[in-house]
Specification:
A nine-stranded mixed β-sheet has the order 2-3-1-4-9-5-8-6-7, sandwiched between helices. The radius of gyration is 20 Å and the shape is elongated. It is α/β, with parallel strands linked by helices. It is built from nine helices and nine strands. The structure holds phosphoribosyl ATP and magnesium ion (MG).
């Protein structure tokens, strides 16, 4: 899993997802002297050039970032702790918590659902989530019996149409919950995005990678 794919040894590929991770990584790249020359929101290209000919950025789904880095198709990438936890992160070096794309993993219910009472009564809860592992662990720790229903998106809908009693989802402003008459009843954990590095790249391309890692580290600490 740790081999670097057949790519020139003097090139670096950074894997990012569109949206908040791309946007919040840009200032860190700038701090490392790297400017991405095209906007993934308007460009259809999946490989974006930067001002450094040896550095390119690839745009992939958020959940696919660790896969590209694990196989060495990208040398490094940025992924949420939620994604790394849920999909495993073997063979990945995680040197820096970038403190970006901050949110929390929470339990939410419909406003009129009495969560505490359901727990007191030992009810079996139906939980809809994309984060099956984290949800299972959370309720097991609390000794609550659950049936978990795996969804791939729009978790907020599930309690509204009777698919589940509870959801486990990411919350940042809380606006999505509010707009759908849901309330947060428990915070499971804080989530931020991490820099992940292919272990072989770290050894073989250390000279090129290290200054970028250092700049990222400094920029993410000072932006606190
Ligand atoms: O959106 P898409 O299906 O393409 O992929 P994705 O959801 O995997 O990617 P993206 O870009 O939406 O999220 C990438 C990473 O950003 C996640 O893995 C998280 O680590 C992080 N992040 C930070 C978030 C949020 N904040 C967030 N608020 N990811 C998702 N959300 C969603 C949440 O699921 C909910 O539906 O936004 C909604 C709630 O937002 P508020 O502000 O209304 O509370
Ligand atoms: Mg999303």
């Amino acid at each position: 899993m740790n081999q670097t794919a057949e790519r020139p040894s003097q090139e670096l590929i950074l894997a990012l997802s569109k949206g908040r991770i791309f946007e919040e990584t840009m200032p860190l790249l700038e701090a490392a002297g790297i400017t991405v020359l095209e906007d993934p929101e308007t460009s259809r290209k999946l490989i974006l050039p930067t001002n450094k000919p040896q550095v390119r950025v690839i745009i992939v789904r958020a959940t696919d970032v660790p896969t590209y880095v694990q196989y060495g198709a990208a040398d490094f990438g940025v992924a949420g702790k939620d994604v790394l936890q849920e999909n495993g992160s073997t063979g990945l070096y995680q040197p820096i918590d970038l403190q970006i794309a901050r949110c929390r993993l929470s339990v939410a219910v419909k406003k009129d659902f009495d969560y505490e009472k359901a727990i007191r009564q030992g009810a079996r809860l139906r939980v809809a989530s994309k984060y099956v592992q984290a949800a299972r662990e959370h309720f097991a720790k609390k000794g609550i019996h659950v049936d978990i229903i795996k969804l791939y998106g729009s978790m907020e809908l599930a309690p509204l149409v009777g698919l589940s009693d509870v959801i486990v989802d990411l919350v940042s402003t809380g606006n999505t919950l509010k707009a759908n008459n849901l309330v947060e009843v428990e915070q499971i954990q804080e989530i931020t995005s991490r820099l992940i590095v292919n272990q072989a790249s770290l050894k073989l391309k250390r000279q090129m990678l290290q200054p970028i890692l250092d700049a990222f580290k400094a920029a993410s600490t000072y932006s606190e």
